Amino acid sequence: MAKPKIPPLYSLVDTLYHTVVDNLSEEIQKREVAAANVFGIVGTYVVTKGLHQFIDEKYLIAGLVGIPIAYAAAQPKRVISIIKNYPVYTSGMVGCVEGGLLSLL
C-alpha cells in the first residue's frame, strides 16, 4: 500500500504543535488529539480576532467554512486519507474552524 501524501501545511503545523506540546507535561502529551484541537481553537481564535479588525466578518466566515468544504469537494479521497492517517492533524484543523467561528460571535 502506498504511503499517504502529507497534508497541506503539515510540516508547518507539526513544527508549531511540537514547539508547544514538547514543553508541556507528559499528561498533555498523551492526549495529543485533544491537545491539537485546543491549540487549533486557541490559535485560530486569536488570529481571526486580529484579522476581524481589517477584514469584514462575512469574508472571514466564508473562508473558514468555504475553504475546507471546497477542498473536500475537490479532493474527497485525499480528505478521507488525511482523516484516516493523520488524526492529530485532523483534530487540529477542526479546532481551527471552531476557533475561527467562535471568535466571530
Count of DSSP-assigned helices: 6
Structural class: mainly alpha
| Rg (CA only) | 15 Å
The parts where pLDDT drops under 50 for at least 5 residues are none
Encode the helix/strand succession as letters. HHHHHH
In whole angstroms, the N-to-C terminal distance is 44 Å
Beta-strand level of the residues, as a percent range? Answer: under 5%
| Largest sheet: number of strands, sense, barrel closure | none
Q: How would you sum up the global shape?
A: flat
**Strand element count:** 0
Output the keywords.
mainly alpha; 6 helices; 105 residues; single chain
How is this structure best described in words?
With 105 residues, the protein is an all-alpha fold. The protein has a domain at 32-103. It has six helices and no strands. The chain has helices at 10-21, 26-30, 32-51, 57-74, 76-85, 87-103. Helix 3 (32-51) runs parallel beside helix 6 (87-103), helix 4 (57-74) crosses helix 5 and helix 4 runs antiparallel to helix 6 (87-103). The radius of gyration is 15 Å and the shape is flat.
Secondary-structure topology with pairs:
Blueprint (H helix, E strand, L loop, with lengths): L9 H12 L4 H5 L1 H20 L5 H18 L1 H10 L1 H17 L2
Helix pairs in contact: 3-6, 4-5, 4-6
